[in-house]
């Protein structure tokens, strides 16, 4: 929650925070500027204990004003920061350092200041070097946990937005399931009304169309729709030219976001078209069983690592290899149980064996066990996104959807 920023700054002995870059696909800027649409030359300065200031090109002043923050004009600040004598050879990082020093003085910020946001690494390093050689009464330090610590728990507005993305995600998933069911089975593949095989590429094109219709985007450029052997590689995106085959597991992992770098949702189902072979059904039953066990066991303040251990213990008792006994395994259970979601699709907390975090009211996170056997042409994952409601201390799935394995299709 943004209200924690000052507490985190104080904890780390920081007097302020500087965020670089525009708001698009820049979680730090998007978060603190309240989603205002501002360009890449922008700066945000948050003095500890005071309201943040947003420094933008004057052409963006009205967009910046929607942030609710104090808005300063970048051009005016640049004039104030200009040296008395023109510099013969320009150095953008040095110019930016002078600008930043002027703004920090204007806002009364001195001492240790954290740097965050989106910027090319070489430029950021040179900016810090130029600034810290200057005499601005402040020192820039890298403290990446300032925003991530505050963002571990979400406020009511953030959860409302994540839930809304979830509802739109479910609408897309439902459309895709109905589309698949409306096709026909022929010679072991799915075909359209003209008798042509339906391909993964066609399905993905429809997914993208439906995302656009609902006003959300594939921000990570990688919706997973993978079948057979590819379903057994957890992050295989699938092959566009591959025809959809009956009876093979399809992992459908979709993680869209609000446009412009906003809040994400994360959701996975595994389907078999027409029917499920015994091997696929058995694997699915194991994943669904441990999914339900983990969901039922969730408790406020419990260590997140407990749920990874619950999962690996169950799978190993069922004869599946896991990363608990072989960290290098590429078959069986090969990843952690879940992760936080928000302005990034993967953020804190982590439901992994090495995590020292605890389940805290306000957290939004995934629960996503899976089993993967590419050598057998099988892969299964089930995933929901969960919020710990601070008012009830209960665990709520933000966008429920059935978890049936088989998607019926017409035979003629």
List keywords for this structure.
about 400 residues; alpha+beta; Creatine Amidinohydrolase; about 30% helix
Describe the structure.
There is one protein chain. The protein has 412 residues and is of the alpha+beta class. It folds into 2 domains: 2-150, Creatinase/prolidase N-terminal domain (Creatine Amidinohydrolase, Chain A, domain 1, 3-Layer(aba) Sandwich), CATH 3.40.350.10; 156-407, Creatinase/methionine aminopeptidase superfamily (Creatine Amidinohydrolase). It has helices spanning 5-11, 27-32, 61-65, 74-81, 92-106, 121-133, 145-150, 156-181, 200-213, 278-297, 305-317; strands spanning 16-20, 43-47, 53-56, 70-73, 111-117, 138-142, 184-186, 189-191, 224-227, 249-254, 267-273, 338-340, 347-351, 364-367, 370-373, 378-381, 384-388, 395-397, 406-407. A 6-stranded mixed sheet has the order 4-3-2-1-5-6. Strand 15 (370-373) and strand 16 form a beta hairpin. The model has no long low-confidence stretch (mean pLDDT 92).
């Amino acid at each position: 929650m943004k209200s924690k920023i000052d507490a985190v700054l104080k904890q780390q002995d920081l007097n302020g925070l500087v965020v670089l870059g525009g708001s698009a696909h820049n979680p730090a800027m998007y978060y603190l500027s309240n989603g205002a649409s501002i360009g890449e030359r922008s700066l945000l300065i948050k003095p500890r204990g005071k309201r943040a200031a947003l420094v933008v090109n004057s052409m963006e002043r009205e967009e910046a004003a929607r942030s609710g923050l104090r808005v300063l004009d970048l051009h005016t600040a640049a004039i104030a920061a200009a040296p008395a004598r023109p510099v013969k050879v320009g150095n953008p990082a040095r110019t930016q350092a002078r600008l930043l020093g002027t703004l920090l003085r204007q806002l009364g910020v001195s001492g240790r200041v954290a740097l965050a946001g989106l910027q090319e690494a070489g430029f950021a390093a040179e900016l810090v070097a130029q600034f810290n050689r200057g005499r601005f009464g402040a020192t820039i330090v890298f403290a990446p946990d300032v925003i991530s610590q505050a963002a571990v728990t979400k406020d009511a507005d953030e959860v409302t937005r994540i839930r809304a993305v979830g509802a739109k995600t479910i609408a897309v998933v439902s459309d895709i399931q109905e589309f698949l069911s409306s096709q026909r089975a022929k010679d072991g593949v799915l075909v359209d009304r003209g008798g042509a095989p339906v391909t993964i590429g066609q399905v993905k094109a429809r997914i993208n169309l439906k995302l656009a219709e609902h006003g959300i985007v594939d921000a990570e450029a990688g919706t997973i729709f993978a079948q057979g052997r590819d379903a057994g590689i957890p992050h295989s995106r699938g092959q566009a030219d591959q025809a959809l085959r009956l009876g093979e597991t399809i992992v459908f992992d979709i993680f869209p976001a609000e446009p412009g770098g906003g809040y994400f949702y994360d959701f996975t189902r595994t389907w078999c078209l027409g029917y499920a072979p015994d091997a696929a059904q058995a694997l699915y039953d194991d994943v669904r069983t441990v999914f339900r066990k983990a969901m039922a066991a969730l408790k406020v303040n419990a260590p997140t690592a407990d749920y990874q251990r619950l999962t690996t213990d169950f799978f190993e008792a069922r004869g599946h290899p896991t990363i608990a006994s072989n960290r290098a395994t590429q078959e069986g259970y090969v990843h952690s149980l879940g992760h936080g979601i928000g302005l990034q699709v993967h953020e804190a907390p982590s439901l992994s064996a090495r995590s020292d975090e605890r389940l805290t009211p306000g957290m939004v996170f995934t629960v996503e066990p899976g089993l993967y056997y590419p050598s057998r042409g099988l892969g299964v994952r089930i995933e929901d996104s969960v919020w710990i409601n601070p008012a009830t201390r209960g665990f709520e799935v933000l966008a429920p959807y059935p978890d049936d394995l088989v998607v019926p299709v017409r035979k003629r």
